[in-house]
């Protein structure tokens, strides 16, 4: 069986995920100019009329779907392959080339070394979509995808082995990321950033829903903290809490932008500290 060499720079989903991770770093490090460049490349390259957006949707069918039964998974695979066949491959190649050139010129080729956790899955899907893969290999690859779509992980199951871009890239990225971010962001802050980063894809619908729930949670946490004896006897703390609550109330009439996200991140940190 012939196994096609995976060209990550021609893997639309890998390009997208690499840029998303670069955007995360620019937001955390407050590199506004670089963040704007990444956002501009993402919005231009994955605008709904582009072939790259169409192909990204095909990838997401396999990596974003809830667990399916066997019949539904097979149907999803068939329909996604048919959808992918409708994509103009020459136009897709040209769009990828334009993105690659812009990244190299405006950001640097190190963006393509960003660690993408589901790299192996994306490489498998890349080969399924490629017509140069022989039949026997394609059958095995498709069986692997169907297995992933239908399997239900056991409670204590270890994550599947990741396929890093290279051992050196993986080690370097993990060490760098852990040293910079692991102690900076709580789970809630990471979730908020992730929703904000992806918000341009669905016009912010998912982000708005999450913010509504998260702001409600923060209000409840602050109200609970203010009822504690130590808190209620400290006028300064009470006033600060009231100011924060007023800020949270005011978010309902404000546009969701970088400024608001930063405020919410700070409030999340405050609530974590007073609830500890």
Write up what this structure looks like:
- By secondary structure, this protein is mostly helical.
- It has helices at 12-28, 32-45, 51-63, 70-85, 89-106, 119-129, 135-150, 167-181, 187-197, 205-226, 229-232, 235-250, 258-275.
- The protein folds into 2 domains: 8-181, no CATH class; 187-275, no CATH class.
- α1 (12-28) runs antiparallel to α2, α9 (187-197) packs antiparallel against α13 and α10 packs antiparallel against α12.
- It is elongated, with a radius of gyration of 22 Å.
- 20% of the residues are buried.
Summary?
This protein has helices at 12-28, 32-45, 51-63, 70-85, 89-106, 119-129, 135-150, 167-181, 187-197, 205-226, 229-232, 235-250, 258-275. It is mainly α and 276 residues long. It has 2 domains: 8-181, no CATH class; 187-275, no CATH class.
Secondary-structure topology with pairs:
Layout: H1 12-28, H2 32-45, H3 51-63, H4 70-85, H5 89-106, H6 119-129, H7 135-150, H8 167-181, H9 187-197, H10 205-226, H11 229-232, H12 235-250, H13 258-275
Helix pairs in contact: 1-2, 2-5, 3-4, 4-7, 6-7, 9-10, 9-13, 10-12, 10-13
Task: Name the structural class.
Answer: mainly alpha
In quaternary terms, these chains amount to single chain
Poorly predicted spans: 154-171
Largest sheet: none
Overall average pLDDT: 79
Helix content: 55-70%
Shape: elongated
- Rg calc: 22 Å
Question: How many beta strands in the DSSP annotation?
Answer: 0
List the helices and strands in order: HHHHHHHHHHHHH
Strand portion? under 5%
Helix count, DSSP H or I runs of 4 or more residues: 13
Taking the alpha carbons of the first and last residues, their distance comes to: 57 Å
| Overall domain count | 2
């Amino acid at each position: 069986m012939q196994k096609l060499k995976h060209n990550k720079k021609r893997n639309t989903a890998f390009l997208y995920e690499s840029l998303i991770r670069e955007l995360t770093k620019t937001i955390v490090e407050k590199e506004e100019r670089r963040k704007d460049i990444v956002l501009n490349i993402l919005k231009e390259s994955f605008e709904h009329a582009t072939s790259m957006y169409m192909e990204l949707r095909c990838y997401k069918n396999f990596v974003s779907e809830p667990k399916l039964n066997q019949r539904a998974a097979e149907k999803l695979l068939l329909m996604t392959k048919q959808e992918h066949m409708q994509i103009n491959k020459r136009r897709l190649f040209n769009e990828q080339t334009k993105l690659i050139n812009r990244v190299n010129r405006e950001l640097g080729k190190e963006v393509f070394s960003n660690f993408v956790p589901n790299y192996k899955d994306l490489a498998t899907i890349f080969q399924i979509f490629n017509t140069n893969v022989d039949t026997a290999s394609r059958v095995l690859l498709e069986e692997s995808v169907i297995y992933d779509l239908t399997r239900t992980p056991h409670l204590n199951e270890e994550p599947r082995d990741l396929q890093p871009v290279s051992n050196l890239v993986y080690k370097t990225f993990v060490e760098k990321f852990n040293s910079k971010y692991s102690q900076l962001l709580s789970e809630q802050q990471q979730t908020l950033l992730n929703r904000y980063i992806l918000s341009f894809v669905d016009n912010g619908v998912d982000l708005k829903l999450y913010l509504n729930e998260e702001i409600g949670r923060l209000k409840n946490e602050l109200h609970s903290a203010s009822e504690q004896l130590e808190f209620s006897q400290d006028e300064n703390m009470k006033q600060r809490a009231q100011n924060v609550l007023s800020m949270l109330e005011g978010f309902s009439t404000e546009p969701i932008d970088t400024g608001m996200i930063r405020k919410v991140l700070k409030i999340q940190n405050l609530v974590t500290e007073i609830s500890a």
